[in-house]
Amino acid sequence: MRNLKGRLDLCSINTATLGHREPLSRTIDRIASAGFGGIAPWRHEVEKVNVAEVAKQIKALDLTVTGYCRSTYLPAATRAQFDANIDDNKAALRDAATLGARCFVMVVGGLPEGSRDLRGARAQVSDGIAELLETAREFGVPLALEPLHPMYAADRAVINTLAQALDICDALDPERSGFLGAAVDAYHCWWDPALQASIAAAGRNERILAFHVCDWLRETRDLLLDRGMMGDGVVDLSALRERVERNGYDGLVEVEIFSKENWWRRDPDDVLRVCAERLQTVC
Amino acid sequence: MRNLKGRLDLCSINTATLGHREPLSRTIDRIASAGFGGIAPWRHEVEKVNVAEVAKQIKALDLTVTGYCRSTYLPAATRAQFDANIDDNKAALRDAATLGARCFVMVVGGLPEGSRDLRGARAQVSDGIAELLETAREFGVPLALEPLHPMYAADRAVINTLAQALDICDALDPERSGFLGAAVDAYHCWWDPALQASIAAAGRNERILAFHVCDWLRETRDLLLDRGMMGDGVVDLSALRERVERNGYDGLVEVEIFSKENWWRRDPDDVLRVCAERLQTVC
């Protein structure tokens, strides 16, 4: 396992960690100034400015874009809406290419409003990924399927385990083109009894495209916005990183923390300082 | 699949559904008066009165005890605490026998305070169940391992999928004695991509000891106390029951709803009326 001490160049900050409180250009500067090697920006902040300018700034600061967040949800109640979702994602893939992103993060979406058809939503997701895989190849940007914690199955992602993501990868990309894989996020996956086996399988098939860290707080008070800083929760992050890296992952370690009542209220530079310290001590 | 219309005798109410606002004897009367065939009481309400009297009242009303809730958490930071947890559960098994419970519901516990050793906690759980299985046989009360939703992995249960529960059953009770199995709860399991396969495996091995229903609300606002009434959420409950019953489950259908801000504020008889209606229409 790589030693992260003094190696913030191996570490990336997902801009959500700072709460999207400032213009993206300011956030990019802060992350670069703090010494991190990577950044993962969000579409809503990129799309309201000029993607070429964002790409230029990131490139000038020599930051790796560890992922572009994130896909428009795929499952829809109508074919027209599904097609619109696909088109949205294709446009985002073009921006991901402009940014030089290592992957396009696919949070695939939950059940369409009013639906109880989980199997149908999962089928739509597979169909949509198949279609987007063509575009991903065209633009040279891999799709990283991010299994989300099962508590988001209804409204955010019907892909909920790494095994499930890998099954889709194997079905749609048996040749392991490098354009389809998974994002392993400690928050979403830490509980999974099959995680060790799934990481091994993913590694063998070169499917791990991103690795995200934060922590699961024992007293989690909100389903979405109460993630913990690394070291403040129950996840054995260094054991997880060891496993991911032993199975071939050599990309950056990305911090992604949604924390409305805590970290999003703190000074951004302080947050980055704590991220840096925890990455080097508990991850 | 059995038709529940006019068959409330096939349905049971977990007393938590009424919010534990009244003395247990009053709750028992309400549930029987409403026509339900079963009840699942909790230890904290049984243990503060007299278990023999509770058993007598339940028997006089001809209610089936579909489960006795629930185990003391097993994983502990010290051996002494682990042993105390085992002893607690043994005492509860004696009460479960007095009540004539169809099973003792095992919510196995999360990580010991301050621990990040998920694998160790899971090993403790297996050890504890092995020990309790002896007692279960003695008292004639099966242990129903209840996989809890992964959002409870830190603090309530390190068994989080039906597959995982079944692996423990197969390891500890390969002869399928009937004294070790699982409780399938729609709320905890609905999202699981492997659920269909796990239910089939459980059925083949006669492991399904209880079936619990409520619903997952799309806009869940609390991790513990915001479960939905059947029909108000996203779970295809009739498809799930069909699957469970096709695989051999012939016990009662138990309603278990934790709902601090909604159902626990309503009149208990109204809650029971809605449960009865939904059981007969959407389950």
UniProtKB/TrEMBL annotation, chains A, B:
This is Sugar phosphate isomerase/epimerase. Pfam families: AP_endonuc_2 (PF01261). SUPFAM superfamilies: Xylose isomerase-like (SSF51658). Gene3D superfamilies: Divalent-metal-dependent TIM barrel enzymes. It comes from the Bacteria. InterPro entries: IolE/XylAMocC-like, Xyl_isomerase-like_sf, Xyl_isomerase-like_TIM-brl. Residues 28-269 form the Xylose isomerase-like TIM barrel domain. Keywords: Isomerase. One of its GO terms (molecular function) is isomerase activity.
